[in-house]
């Protein structure tokens, strides 16, 4: 992902690549290079430090690394309060099709009795469920609560550990790790007499680059924390801009 992002920025006529850092490199290079926007595609153990260095130095950030739990987000919000004008985008997925599929699923979920999520990735992925699946589950759960939709029915009384997947905000999420896959997700919705499947497939990491570039171009004009690329696609901004959700 990092190498693909470097190539994408380098090829963009309106952007200039000023630094490309790897593991163990001195983060002070970001400041010396005159960086306007940082793209963080590292690992959960590193991302928090990298983003906080950027914010402290007035550098906007586009973040595609997972591991941003509520505790880390709270610390980032505090840091951004002390750095007015700096914007940070944290996006679980940069594929425009994936973002659209999640938005469609959230809108459809209130109309169906049952909903479950299956995410499928390559076996080198270090986290499960994926950040995209967790984000989808959260938005689906929000939509169902707002509509007064009850929990999905499930009469299971006995099950092998993990057989029913993980529960994320009351939504069952199942993770598949299989050689040959890249990044795929299905949201399965059902009611008596009908089912609806919303599926997205990323077949190559090139699918993420338009979203990365959109984030780079958009985040300087969006101070504060934005969670999800949806805000920059005009998809229900009241749900995706973090500060608007907090105010509400």
Automatic annotation (TrEMBL):
Signal sequence residues: none
The EC number(s) this enzyme carries: 1.17.1.8
Pathway where this protein functions: Amino-acid biosynthesis; L-lysine biosynthesis via DAP pathway; (S)-tetrahydrodipicolinate from L-aspartate: step 4/4
Biased composition (Low complexity): 144-165
InterPro entries named in the record: DapB_C, DapB_N, DapB_N_CS, DHDPR_bac, NAD(P)-bd_dom_sf
Gene3D superfamilies hit by this protein: Dihydrodipicolinate Reductase, domain 2 (3.30.360.10), NAD(P)-binding Rossmann-like Domain (3.40.50.720)
GO cellular component: cytosol
Family label: Belongs to the DapB family.
Record's protein name: 4-hydroxy-tetrahydrodipicolinate reductase
């Amino acid at each position: 992902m990092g190498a693909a992002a470097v190539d994408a920025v380098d090829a963009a006529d309106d952007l200039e690549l000023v630094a490309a850092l790897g593991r163990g490199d001195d983060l002070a290079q970001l400041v010396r290079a005159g960086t306007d926007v940082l793209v963080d595609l590292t690992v959960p153990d590193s991302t928090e430090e990298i983003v906080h260095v950027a914010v402290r130095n007035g550098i906007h950030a586009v973040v595609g690394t997972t591991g941003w739990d509520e505790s880390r987000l709270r610390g980032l919000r505090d840091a951004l309060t002390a750095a007015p004008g700096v914007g940070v985008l944290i996006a679980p997925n940069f594929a425009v099709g994936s973002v659209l599929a999640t938005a469609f699923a959230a809108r459809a979920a209130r109309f169906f009795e049952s909903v479950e999520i299956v995410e499928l990735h390559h076996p080198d992925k270090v986290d499960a469920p994926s950040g995209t699946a967790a984000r989808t589950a959260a938005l689906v759960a929000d939509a169902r609560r707002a509509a007064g939709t009850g929990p999905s029915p499930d009469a299971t009384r006995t099950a092998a550990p993990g057989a029913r997947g993980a529960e994320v905000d009351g939504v069952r999420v199942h993770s598949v790790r299989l050689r040959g896959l890249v990044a795929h997700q299905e949201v399965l919705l059902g009611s008596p007499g009908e089912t609806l499947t919303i599926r997205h497939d990323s077949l190559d990491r090139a699918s993420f680059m338009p979203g990365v570039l959109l984030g780079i171009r958009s985040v300087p004009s969006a101070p504060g924390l934005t969670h999800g690329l949806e805000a920059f696609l005009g998809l229900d901004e009241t749900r995706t801009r973090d500060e608007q959700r907090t105010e509400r």
